[in-house]
Amino acid sequence: MTAGRAAGELHDFREQVRRWCRENIPADWRVTQTDASDAEFVRFQRDWFQRLRAAGFAVPHWPAAWGGGMPLDRQIVLYQELAAHDAPRLVLAFVGVHHAAATLLAAGTEDQRRKHLPAILDGEIWAQGFSEPGAGSDLASLRTAARFDGDDWVVTGQKVWVSGAHYADWCLLLARTDPNAPPRRGISYFLLDMRSPGLEVRPIRQATGESHFCEIFLDEVRIPAANLIGAPNAGWQVAQQTLGAERGLTMLELAERLGNAGFRRLVELASRQSPAGRALDDPVVADRLARLDIEITGLRALCRDLVERHEAGAVGPADASIVKLFYSELLQRTTDFGAELAGPAAHTVLTKPRSSGWESGAWVLDFIGSWEWTIPGGTSEIQRTIIGERGLGLPREPAAR
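Predicted structure:
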């Protein structure tokens, strides 16, 4: 295919996505999703996912055999246009279409894939049960225990900061199966049915009034042996596939939303706050906006490069950590500046649309929410350690005594 023909087809695809966005994105979704009940939120999310699925836009990163197969350049166009048209985020489907799917495709059995991948497309909701009260970023220290009994694994323990667990049908679960093995070698990876007896979910009410996170308590919960992912005690390696999904293709969408809808709202806010109605009238504001624009451009390039090298099998050992660190701290800087520009009035905004992301325009709430990104999946400090040791070859950090 010639370069001109490829560019023309990409242009036609962009126009197709734009038409679809104009015809399918609910114009009033921000209004209807503000103060929406749990039932309204779930119903909206399921409907939005099926709209995207019908158009072939729900899981473009999946293999073609499972309903995806969209070329990378088209995926980038898709995420750009969804962001530009202020499309709702797939909040409830996020773990399923990214983390669960990546895990199943990389390490699941054929039976596990046939059971769950079509179910995810039909609306099956997933959560991720990794962190514990004493094992957040340091997952290797987790203490939730599983022992083999008959045909089942029996699990007892506690998980915390589990996003959307109160809506979930299934959960990706890490548990220690060999207490005598070195920390990273004694962990196994399970698919947990959230309707299992002995399982309790408790939503955590946050300072913002939301209950996005949950605790999960497991008391002798039985998990069939068929729900083990990978080999026993090899869960740490499988978990890297899950976490890698968070820092790979998912970052394409998040970077486009930050660079398009998020930055656009920031410029609009700066313009409204300027006496003359122009953000560039204030040189300090103009300088801050220019710096953020440059950083966001760099983030988008980093994300695309990471995905391209992932497809080519050439990802470096610290590349995903670089992207995760850069995005999370840039998100904080952007929302912090938004909160600063919006002034005291922004502190009176107590709700934001439930299907929005971290750049909704409710700047104080967005800034508070942005801190979520520098903690789970490895704190910024851990990402810097990975970059230093694995990426730059620096000496390993001394272990605590």
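Summary: Residues 132 and 159 are 5 Å apart (CA to CA).
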